[in-house]
């Protein structure tokens, strides 16, 4: 992506690339990202399997979650905070996944939720997939 010379003149004396990007973000920010995050969250929270294959439903959710990760601007300094945040996000995503499952998978949903520690999303998917294949 090229910067137009008229815009470039304003930033030619900014000492670092980081400061240039920060200035550009401030100058040209239009709020679109919040709308995108809202839309992605809305799609995730309302996603339902609705008789579709489990792999298709899971793939749709993971695509939404990956897009949300790309928009995430949370900055943490301690490894403990990072781990707590990661666990919180994983737990939320497992819940979103389980809520969206068809009712025929209600038993495995309950078994996952009754575990001592909620598995991560991939583990939850694997458990549900095993149950779905068994049926």
How far from one another are the termini?
Answer: 51 Å
Low-pLDDT stretches are none
Q: Which H/E pattern describes the elements? A: HHHHHHH
Helix/sheet category: mainly alpha
Fraction of helical residues: over 70%
Shape: elongated
Number of DSSP helices?
A: 7
Q: Quick one: how many beta strands?
A: 0
Task: Give keywords.
7 helices; 135 residues; mainly alpha
Question: Can you give a write-up of this model?
Answer:
The chain has 135 residues and is mainly alpha-helical. 71% of the residues lie in helices and 0% in strands. It is built from seven helices and no strands. It has helices at residues 5-11, 17-28, 32-46, 54-71, 79-100, 106-113, 121-134. The termini are far apart. The mean pLDDT is 90.
Quickly describe the structure.
By secondary structure, this protein is an all-alpha fold. It has helices at residues 5-11, 17-28, 32-46, 54-71, 79-100, 106-113, 121-134.
Layout: helices, strands, pairs:
Blueprint: H1 5-11, H2 17-28, H3 32-46, H4 54-71, H5 79-100, H6 106-113, H7 121-134
């Amino acid at each position: 992506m090229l910067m137009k010379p008229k815009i470039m003149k304003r930033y030619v004396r900014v000492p670092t690339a980081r400061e240039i990007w920060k200035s550009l973000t401030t100058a040209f920010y239009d709020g679109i990202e919040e709308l995108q995050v809202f839309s992605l969250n809305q799609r995730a929270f309302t996603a339902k399997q609705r008789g579709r294959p489990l792999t298709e439903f899971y793939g749709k959710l993971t695509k939404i979650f990956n897009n949300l990760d790309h928009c995430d601007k949370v900055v943490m300094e301690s490894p403990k905070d990072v781990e707590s945040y990661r666990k919180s996000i994983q737990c939320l995503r497992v819940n979103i996944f389980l809520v969206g499952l068809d009712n025929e998978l209600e038993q495995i949903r309950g078994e996952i939720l009754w575990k001592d520690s909620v598995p991560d999303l991939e583990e939850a998917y694997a458990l549900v997939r095993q149950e779905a294949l068994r049926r």
